[in-house]
Amino acid sequence: MQRLLAAARRPILSRPPSLSGPPSRFPLGLGPRLGFAMVASGNPADPTTGTWQRVSSGPVPYEVYSKPVEKSPQDDREYRVIRLDNGLQAMLVHDAKADKAAASLDVAVGHLYDPLDSVAISHTAKGTEQYPKENEYSEYLAKNNGSSNAYTGTSNTNYYFNVATTALPGALSRFAAFFHCPLFAPSCTVRELNAVDSEHKKNHQSDMWRIFQVNKHLSKPGHPWRKFGSGNKESLSKVGRELKEKGLLQNGNGQNGNGTAAMKSADGSLAATPNDSRAASPAPSASSANSELEGDGGVVGRETRRRLVEWWSREYCAGRMRLAESLDELADMVASLFSPIPNRGREPLHMINDHPFGPNEMGTLVSLQTIMSFHALEISFPLPYLPPFWRHKPAGFLAHFLGHEGPGSLHSYMKQKGWITALSAGPQNLARGFAMFKITLYMTPQGFEQYETLIHTVFKYISMLRSSNFPAWYQRERSLISATRFRFAEKRRPDDYAVWVSEHMSWPVPRELILSAPQLVQEWDENDPVNGGEREMREILDTLVIERSRTVLMAKAEEYERVRGKDSIAWEKEPWYGTSYHVERLSEDFVKKANEPNDLKELFLPGPNEFIPTNLDVEKREVEKPAKRPFLVRETPLSSLWHKKDDQFWVPKAQVIMDIRSPVPNTSGRTFVMTRLFADLVTDSLTEFAYDADLAGLSYYFGGHSLGLYMTLNGYNDKLHVLAKHVLERVRNLKVSPDRLEVMKDQAKREYENFFLGQPYRLSDYYARYMLSEREWTMSELLEEVPTVTPEELQTHIAAVLSKVNIQMLVVGNMYKDEAARLAQMAEDILQTSSIPASEVIERSLVLPSGSNFIWTTPVPNKDEPNSSLSYYIHIGKTTEPRVRASAALLAHILSEPAFNVLRTREQLGYIVSASQWNLTGGGETGIRIVVQSERQPAHLEQRVEAFLREMDEKLQTMSTEEFQEHRVALQKRWREAPKNLGEEVNRYWGHIEQGYLDFHRRDNDADLLESITKDDILALFRSRAGPSSTSRAKLSIHVKSQKPRPAKISVAAMEAFAKKVAEHGYAVDEQAWKANLAAEGDAPLEKFANYWRDTLLAQASTVSPQVAQELTKEVPALLEQYPASDDGKDVVIEGATFVQEPKAFRASLEPSERPRALVDWNDLPTSKF
């Protein structure tokens, strides 16, 4: 029942990152995970080596674990593990430097623990007895620079938030109340069912979710893994509907249909929320008005809620909870706030030790049809639960070899054959009790044609491993790499860290090893053949045989026809997503061949990793406070180098960004495509060399973009220059291989094609960017160019791109400026190119004229996608004007939480709703963007957004001085947050360098400037720039409209009119029955309406002539016309808007933004020796 208790993005995938395992988590909210950490836990089966000491000095007694938590020497945070009398364990984390607090509570119950007959019921708790207002929690966080989210896993549900440190007590109080005194408001039931259903429909065309569910569906009958974990409206209300059909539910009078007393929840609570948590929608639409008729969903909704409350009262037990937070005062606070959670005596960490793979599931090949265009093959082997193997992590040892990309590897061999583009391998915990080892191949079309050969090649490599001796240095390398990573791990955002800690508190490790055990790998003990480590690995390796595997083959339907022939496969349908699949047992001959010893000489074990850092020295110089910007330390006609020596994180790491700008890549869609192919070929050619570097903690990225080529390096600085040299030399000297070019072209083609099959809100946002960028190409334009690019043309293009460039470079971290300067000089020497002024390669946006209201409509390309999307952009002004910039940010902050609360929570428009500030291309112009993805048509969404904006005018006008100050302070705190790690610091600097404004102190300056911005200023800005009634407003909305017809609906008013006519014609009408069946959720599907009344009228055929029923049926069309449904599928007319007919002509009519310019002259170079 986890989905409704934790209800609340996935990238558009050219290939899914995880094909048959769980999509990690079921995300339960839309909003950023920003980042104080508190972590809580139940009673894991840990081999406790310390003792618990009683503390009775505070308001509520608790116990403290005696041993100190093992942490990195680099980690300056304090840790303490406490245990409350109700069994809840909490990890308290104190960071004296923190400007943000966070907490994560992990409940050891996931969707596998839901009742088999009522899948996934879990987030109707919108208010609590202490804080009954529905959005009290989210509103409090928003006003204190915070946010929250939750997710449901297979065996856990995690709730977390972040907030300004000063607001932690209030946030914790509101947070804790959800776990001991939640209000499962009846009025929330239908809305949360709709939210879960909307999320399911959002994912319905996602291959990741479809593949995941097919693999679950093909598990052992009766196994919990078979469950439909994410849930939808049908699954959530299934039991209620079945009980209703049997006459076992009450009809509102406290009696069941058979006259017996209605069932009660565990706590006897079926009462309405003490204070109505649902405020009326602003300018309510017909749908929102109708949904007020019976907000609890009628008898089915009430039964769904009853089961939820009953389940929560049984399963949400303190002993199953893990909490992570930040020490003495915090411990007292946690004990006071979380001790009221009852311990219901449930098993703290329930294990499911039975694996979902049985004899019938293993030794099979599953063919599966995808939505997106890709070819993949995944081989899975059942594994036991992995955390008990935390010391030596044997499955990870095997993953090191099977997933290796260096010489002699499976990846290298298959890539050279032209069969694959990528390979991944490794263990995956599916649930608490069982795991899987997976080898995933992303194939070329040629590889797909020979998928059987690829399967046999995988088992040849496994056979080679089985016959190999593994010197202990392999495990020693893993141990050294993990120890180095643990020692120099940088801090994360507090809520990210709190979630990680709370999740791992359930591991069966001593409490002092909660942090270290999941991350460190111990060396093998060569003197202990039983428990030394190698035996564990060998035992797992011996299970990696084809008889114990399941292989899943994935491709579009037409690819199966191409390779295996038309009508050669008898497809079946998975029930929840409708995915086509076919299962067949592997033949004896195929299995026999897979068990043959390896005969491929090209396969061999990797050698020692030469990239493991040896110099990890950091010269730590105490500074009064860290510098707030990088310094320009070197400038030549060809390059500019910005540098900052690390003065706050003190890790032996550096991050380098090198932007190699050229005017050539963006002259046309074709040159853009060729630049991308160039970058792809460089990356492809460096795979074997760079893989060891990546393993050792040093990685790079090289890609094309509209201004040229973009290269980053980050990790341990010891050998960073070695990797940089190899990448730059490959860039300069690449010879285009015709074979590899064809592979890269195929990848690019599929990525561009798959773009159109992604989420509609991503499409509408993309088109909004396209319409407002000076030089941009559509995916369709790029797709047209891919097939005809030749090796010769690409080679010529590469020379042109590199002939004249300007390099913008940033180096931050454990590198002195002379080392950074040598890196810049090396880049110039290797590239051997001429220079161009930086001003010749810039990006600019297009500016909407004042008083404009534009709409562009385009269909969703995927005809099976039920959702439409609206991206609604309001232009505010120039970011170069500080007051405009800061005011726009404050207005966006004020609008954000109400937009979500009104458009998603109250109006139920859809799962994806967001309002935020939007900086346009080039960073010189800014505005506010509201995005909504919904089954409703975009024109209706636009009307609701404008109704929301009109209501916000009143809210701003009546907003108290205190509330306005809360918003202002929250934004100031966000801007004054210190970066948490090197990556965050680099990101803050790079935007100013990339865009050319060099306004490094903007965050602090804008935070100061907010002090002078008043509520009247924001109201005036809103009314002139954002309010729909403004004559000076500049607005563009993108309507991406679904092509999938929606089921016809009939309004409640029409149904009432029809029921009245039925009664007038002599029929007996049970008003309570028809409303419960048809109107519990407002407008009803027309088909459902017709079926209900057909059966009802037929049942009375003996007393009323059937001809009367036929005459009544003829009156329905007129009633539909007289009382239209709010969502009748008809096009909504929007008055006063200009509809864009031709995007290119529209873009040509807009003026470009100002050319970027440095807003501050830092005068660095005169004092620099470079």
Automatic annotation (TrEMBL):
One of its GO terms (biological process) is peptide catabolic process. Transmembrane segments: none annotated. Residues 326-473 form the Peptidase M16 C-terminal domain. Keywords: Hydrolase, Metal-binding, Metalloprotease, Protease, Zinc. It comes from the Eukaryota. Residues 91-222 form the Peptidase M16 N-terminal domain. One of its GO terms (molecular function) is metalloendopeptidase activity. Residues 486-785 form the Peptidase M16 middle/third domain. Residues 890-990 form the Coenzyme PQQ synthesis protein F-like C-terminal lobe domain. Belongs to the peptidase M16 family. This is Insulin-degrading enzyme. It comes from Trametes cubensis.
